[in-house]
Amino acid sequence: MTGYREILVARDGAVARITLNRPDKLNAFTLTMADELLAALHEAEADAEVRAVLLEGAGRAFGAGFDLSLVDAMETPELGAVLDAHFNPLIRAMRRSRLPIVAAVQGACAGGSVGVALAADLVVAGRSAFFYEPFVGIALVPDIGNSLFLPRLVGRMKAAGMALLGERIPAEDASAWGLVWRVVDDAALAEESAAVAARLAAQPAAAVAATKRLLGAAAENGLDAQLDLERDLQDQAGRSPECRAAIERFLKRG
């Protein structure tokens, strides 16, 4: 499991450990990182000895969403095409994988990184973790599964508060709302999340895969339609003057 540029992949027994590895950028997603994460997941799927996946972020954050510094403020971004080509296939693959996926979240988990974390089957959060939906503030809409996962996990009212107001939801509140499975001290996050992944890997594989499929069918009926709607609305939002101005302001902050 080598040859990746923006992620690290290792084996810990029957667990494939995938680390988002842009710590200097708070693991903000690039297209390369999204594609490599999908490739690593496919690689784990193809390995009969892998029974679970642990997804984590290097450094002090799980992920800061999509890296806006890669967007040219003077051009109209083709966000719908970006989602179709790079991010929606990743979310579909995570939800449809035979493998249970554990996300270990510390520090910032923002924007698209929230969607990736919530596409996992279990989220273990450090006490430093917070979940943040910045989309509306930069004239965009929730994407990468956010508009599907949030209301189904926390209810429409709390999802609306997160998406429309852009408030940071600390780990303890996220746990009370049902966004995460467990909150632990930051110092214990690596050990606890690895232990959860190991427990899943030790369960009967066929039963785990079938249970994941059942839960997914109950909770995510309409996934394709929702991802397509996110794509279309994000494509429109990304073409707006407000979005271009917001990205320009972001880039000037440097």
Short characterization:
This protein is an alpha/beta fold and 254 residues long. Helices cover 51% and strands 15% of the residues.
Walk me through this protein's architecture.
The chain is an alpha/beta fold. The protein has one domain: Alpha-Beta Complex (2-enoyl-CoA Hydratase, Chain A, domain 1), CATH 3.90.226. The protein is about 50% helix and about 15% strand. The protein has a 6-stranded mixed beta sheet with strand order 1-2-3-4-6-9, with helices on both faces. The longest helix is centred in the middle third of the chain and has 18 residues.
Please give the structural blueprint.
Elements: E1 7-12, E2 15-20, H1 31-46, E3 52-57, H2 79-96, E4 101-105, E5 108-110, H3 112-119, E6 122-126, E7 130-132, H4 146-154, H5 156-165, E8 169-170, H6 171-177, E9 182-184, H7 186-202, H8 205-219, H9 223-238, H10 241-253
Parallel strand pairs: 2-3, 3-4, 4-6, 5-7, 6-9
Antiparallel strand pairs: 1-2, 7-8
